[in-house]
C-alpha cells in the first residue's frame, strides 16, 4: 500500500524500497555466479541437485557449474542496467521489455547447453543425448511460448499505466487522457485549490501506484479520491466535484500551476 503522510512532501520512499530489492537481487546474482564460475556450487543448480547419483554421473559437474555461472553473470549484467534508470519510470523504457525477454532467452540457452554440452567425455550414449536435446528444446520453446505473451502484455500494461496523464480543456470539460482517465465537467466543480503538500493519506483501492506515479481510485482518509499524480512533483491540484475529490498534477511545477490558473479562470 502506498501512502502519502499528511502535511509532508513525498520523498520517494517506495522507490528506495524497490532499489533495495534490486540491490539484494544483484548481490545474490553476484555471489551465485562467482561460486558457480569456480566450478563448484552444483547444489545451487535446480534439477541437478535433486537428480539421482546415476544421472549426476553423466555430467561434468565443473563444466555444468561454469555454464550456469556464465548464465548468472549475464543476468547480473542485465540487472546492473536497472541502476541507470529511475525506478518510477523504468516501465516506460524499452529496457524493461528487453530485460524480461533477455531473461527468458538466457534461461533457455543455459538449459539447452547444460543438457547437451555438459556430459562427461566418456558418456557415449548418443541416443540419450539426442533425446535430451529434443526434450530441452521442447521445454525451452514451451517456456518462451507461454511466458513471452504474458510478459509482453504485462509490460504494455505497466508502460501505459506509467505514462503521465494528458490534460485537455475544451468547451466546458477537463479531459484526463490516461490509464483510468475520465472527463470532468467544469460546471460540476465546486472548489479547486493548489496544495504544496498532500493534506491526507492515500491508499490504493482500484488503480496503479508505480513508484511515485499514482492513478485511479484511492482512499483519502475515508473518502474516495480520483488520483492522477506524480507524488514526487508537487504541487497538487485538489478539485472537489459532485462526484467526489479529484487530485491531479502535471510533469512540472510550472505546468501544474499553469493548469490550475487556467481551470480557476474558467470556474464560475
Automatic annotation (TrEMBL):
Keyword Transmembrane helix appears in the UniProt entry: yes
TM segment ranges: 20-43, 64-85, 97-115, 136-159
Keyword annotations from UniProtKB, A to Z: Membrane, Transmembrane, Transmembrane helix
Protein name, per record: Uncharacterized protein DUF3784
Domain of life (superkingdom): Bacteria
Amino acid at each position: 500500500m502506498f501512502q502519502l503522510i499528511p502535511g509532508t512532501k513525498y520523498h520517494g520512499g517506495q522507490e528506495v524500497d524497490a532499489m533495495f530489492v534490486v540491490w539484494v537481487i544483484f548481490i545474490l546474482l553476484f555471489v551465485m555466479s562467482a561460486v558457480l564460475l569456480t566450478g563448484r556450487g552444483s547444489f545451487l543448480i535446480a534439477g541437478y541437485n535433486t537428480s539421482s547419483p546415476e544421472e549426476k554421473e553423466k555430467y561434468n559437474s565443473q563444466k555444468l557449474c561454469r555454464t550456469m555461472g556464465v548464465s548468472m553473470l549475464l543476468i547480473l549484467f542485465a540487472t546492473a542496467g536497472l541502476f541507470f534508470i529511475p525506478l518510477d519510470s523504468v516501465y516506460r523504457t524499452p529496457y524493461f521489455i528487453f530485460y524480461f525477454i533477455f531473461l527468458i532467452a538466457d534461461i533457455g540457452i543455459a538449459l539447452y547447453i547444460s543438457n547437451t554440452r555438459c556430459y562427461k567425455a566418456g558418456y557415449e550414449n548418443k541416443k540419450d543425448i539426442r533425446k535430451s536435446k529434443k526434450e530441452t528444446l521442447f521445454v525451452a520453446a514451451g517456456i518462451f511460448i507461454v511466458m513471452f505473451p504474458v510478459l509482453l502484455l504485462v509490460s504494455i500494461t505497466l508502460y501505459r499505466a506509467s505514462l503521465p496523464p494528458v490534460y485537455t480543456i475544451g468547451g466546458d470539460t477537463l479531459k484526463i487522457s490516461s490509464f483510468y482517465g475520465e472527463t470532468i465537467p467544469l460546471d460540476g466543480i465546486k472548489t479547486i485549490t493548489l496544495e504544496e503538500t498532500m493534506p491526507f493519506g492515500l491508499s490504493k483501492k482500484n488503480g496503479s501506484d508505480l513508484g511515485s506515479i499514482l492513478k485511479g481510485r484511492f482512499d483519502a482518509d475515508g473518502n474516495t479520491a480520483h488520483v492522477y499524480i506524480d507524488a514526487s512533483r508537487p504541487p497538487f491540484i485538489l478539485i472537489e466535484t459532485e462526484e467526489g475529490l479529484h487530485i491531479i498534477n502535471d510533469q512540472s511545477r510550472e505546468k501544474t500551476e499553469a493548469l490550475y490558473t487556467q481551470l480557476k479562470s474558467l470556474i464560475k
